[in-house]
Write a structure and sequence with these properties.
By secondary structure, the protein is mainly alpha-helical. It has 7 helices and no strands. The relative contact order is 0.17.
């Protein structure tokens, strides 16, 4: 879950290679769902294939606090996963690999 949320957040970063691809393709991401709850205007622009529409959608997502909410959720799921991993009965090297992956998911920017 944390990986997918982080992927959706990366998609709205203007520095991302795939900036706006979820928006252009009309994917119903958690960011979209949370944004729509407070601003139905998002539907006017969501799925349109031009950069001004993408920028408007990203603005709505930021203004609706959907971005912050999704960042918090990604952090929550990542931290929760780490706690679960710490408590499973496997070799320490496997735990370290899984914990490293959790950190990668949480910190990835591409």
């Amino acid at each position: 879950v944390a990986f997918q949320i982080q992927d959706d957040l990366i998609d709205i970063n203007p520095d991302s290679k795939k900036f706006g691809s979820d928006i252009i393709n009309g994917k119903k991401t958690l960011l979209y769902i949370k944004s729509k709850k407070s601003n139905k205007e998002i539907d006017k622009y969501y799925g349109l294939k031009d950069s001004s529409a993408v920028k408007k959608v990203v603005k709505i997502m930021n203004e609706s606090n959907a971005v912050k909410e999704c960042q918090k959720l990604s952090e929550y799921y990542s931290n929760n996963s780490k706690e679960l991993i710490k408590n499973i009965d496997v070799e320490i090297v496997l735990k370290e690999i899984m914990l490293d992956f959790c950190n990668y998911v949480k910190n990835r920017t591409y």
